[in-house]
Specification:
Largest sheet: 5 strands, antiparallel
Order of helices and strands: HHHHHHEHEEHEEEEEEHHHEEHEEHH
Strand order of the largest sheet: 11-8-7-12-13
CATH class of one domain: Alpha Beta
Number of helices: 14
Strand content: 15-25%
CATH architecture of one domain: 2-Layer Sandwich
Distance between the termini: 70 Å
Number of strands: 13
Structural class: alpha+beta
Length: 359
């Protein structure tokens, strides 16, 4: 019998157990540190850190398809080459003067108003809409290019035409339509007593009570346009701050509806409503399936904007984005009384059966 074995056996059982536990904890910490160090230096995981990547999508979708779909410029260009309608756009990766930006938009025949958004963004964050002239677009461009994400500069922004209509999210599973919801923009209704800021706070309290997302980002320019209040951010920042304070204290007349955000995103308080499948035009369903097959994505969320989803995309409608890692929050919120929608989705995912709430 060795001395080491004898000394180990001589240790009381309680102490021996705690030493074993401590040794296991140390080993786990060391392994986690090694994995973290590898992930922080691995170019593939570094690329995913700038996208809406999730481990679930990696196990379902092809890694190259994920990278392609998470790059908005590549996605829009592929849609254009395949005659699928999407907003006209231009990719800008450096700061331009207002005149140069205006000439660039004219060369690509992009009309105002325009939208400025980062190439690798998600959840509607840092999307600036309703830019009606070159000065406003230039200001938004400089603002986004000057920001940093995860310590790194933004890789570029997209300036695209702003299309009108209702915002729909189509969830595809195994190249079939699983669910369709319409994201209604956050709205408050005046009562002639409360201020706009009070109405927004009341709505956010109801959202939290119902376990929904509150509206944290208010589109003050869009609110000012609805209320007829001048809002100019091109020259005097002090007057802009005064305008926002004026809007905070503005008493909304009774029954007047005010849309407080024009970015229809579930994470910014835009509640989703389920869309019956029979109300969707067959051409649109065929287009959604084609996009899923085109990008070779078994699970994908498609953002589609149109005034009427019952009309064919040949007449009206645009694809806004293709998301390879769609979240289930927007679909779960559309079924407040059905707590099993996520469970059914996972079951269909595991069984590779295109079950949907429409069946």
């Amino acid at each position: 019998m060795s001395l080491a074995f004898y000394s180990f056996k001589s240790i009381p059982p309680s102490v021996r157990t705690w030493r074993t536990i401590c040794l296991i904890v140390v080993l786990v910490v060391v392994v986690c540190g090694v994995v973290y160090a590898w992930c922080s230096t691995n170019p593939v995981t570094e690329t995913y850190s700038n996208t809406a990547y999730s481990p679930l999508q990696h196990g379902i979708n092809n890694i190259n398809s994920n990278l392609l779909a998470n790059h908005k410029v590549a996605t829009s260009r592929i849609l254009q080459l395949n005659d699928i309608p999407c907003p006209r756009f231009v990719h800008v990766h450096r700061t331009l003067s207002a005149d140069a930006l205006h000439q660039l938009l004219q060369a690509y025949e992009i009309p105002y108003p325009v939208v400025v958004k980062p190439v690798n963004g998600n959840q509607g964050k840092r999307v600036i809409v309703n830019l009606n002239n070159a000065a406003q677009a230039h200001r938004a461009l400089v603002s986004l290019l000057g920001r940093r994400r995860k310590g790194k500069p933004v890789s570029g922004v997209i300036v695209e035409e702003q299309v009108q209509g209702m915002d729909f999210r189509i969830l595809m599973l195994n190249h079939k339509v699983f669910d369709i919801v319409c994201r209604m923009r956050a709205t408050v209704i005046g009562d002639g007593v409360h201020t706009l800021d009070q109405l927004i706070q009341q709505r956010n309290q109801r959202q939290r009570r119902d376990k929904r997302f509150p509206t944290k980002s208010v589109s003050w320019r869009y609110v000012a346009e609805q209320l007829g209040v001048p809002y100019d951010v091109d020259h005097d920042l002090g007057s802009t701050a005064n305008t926002i304070r004026l809007l905070h204290d503005y008493i909304v007349p009774p029954q007047q509806r005010v849309i407080i955000t024009n970015v229809a995103n579930n994470h910014n308080g835009c509640n989703p409503v389920r869309v019956p499948l029979q109300s969707v035009h067959p051409d649109n369903i065929a287009m959604f399936e084609r996009i899923s097959q085109l990008f070779r994505l078994k699970m994908v969320g498609i953002d589609y904007m149109t005034p009427d989803i019952a009309q064919s995309y040949h007449q009206v409608g645009h694809i806004i984005e293709v998301n390879s890692g769609p979240g289930m929050d927007v679909h779960r919120s559309a079924y407040p009384r059905d707590k099993k929608v996520v469970r059914r989705f996972v079951r269909a995912l595991v069984k590779s059966v295109p079950w949907s709430p429409y069946e």
